[in-house]
Amino acid sequence: MRRHSLTAQAVEAAVDTLLREAEDGPRATVSARHLHIYEDHVRRLTTESASLRAVLEAHTDVAIIRPTAQQTEA
């Protein structure tokens, strides 16, 4: 789960950076729209992953091992 939250943070940082860089150009609107689509996609994947993990854990006797913060940064 931590890996997904780091991904969402990275997308948010990229959105902020690209919006600042493209503030005055005609590509600013396109960039903002595309970045928000990507951000929504990451958020949706994070939710789906958490839901699938919960269902899998509920129907098996095996606990899902989540990576540590150190493993997700590698």
Explain what you see.
The protein has 74 residues and is mostly helical. It has one domain. Helix content is 78%, strand content 0%. The protein has helices spanning 2-21, 27-59, 69-73. α1 packs antiparallel against α2.
Indicate the mean pLDDT.
71
Secondary-structure element series: HHH
Helix content range of the residues, please?
A: over 70%
Can you count the beta strands? 0
Mind summarizing the main beta sheet? none
Overall geometric form: elongated
Uncertain regions: pLDDT < 50 for 5+ in a row? none
What is the number of domains? Answer: 1
Quote the distance from N terminus to C terminus: 15 Å
Strand content: under 5%
User: Count of DSSP helices?
Assistant: 3
Radius of gyration, taken over Cα atoms and rounded to an integer in Å:
16 Å
Could you say which structural class the secondary elements and strand pairing correspond to? mainly alpha
Question: Can you give me a brief rundown of this structure?
Answer:
The chain is an all-alpha fold and 74 residues long. It has helices at residues 2-21, 27-59, 69-73.
Question: Any chance you could write out the topology, listing elements then pairs?
Answer:
Layout: H1 2-21, H2 27-59, H3 69-73
Helix pairs in contact: 1-2
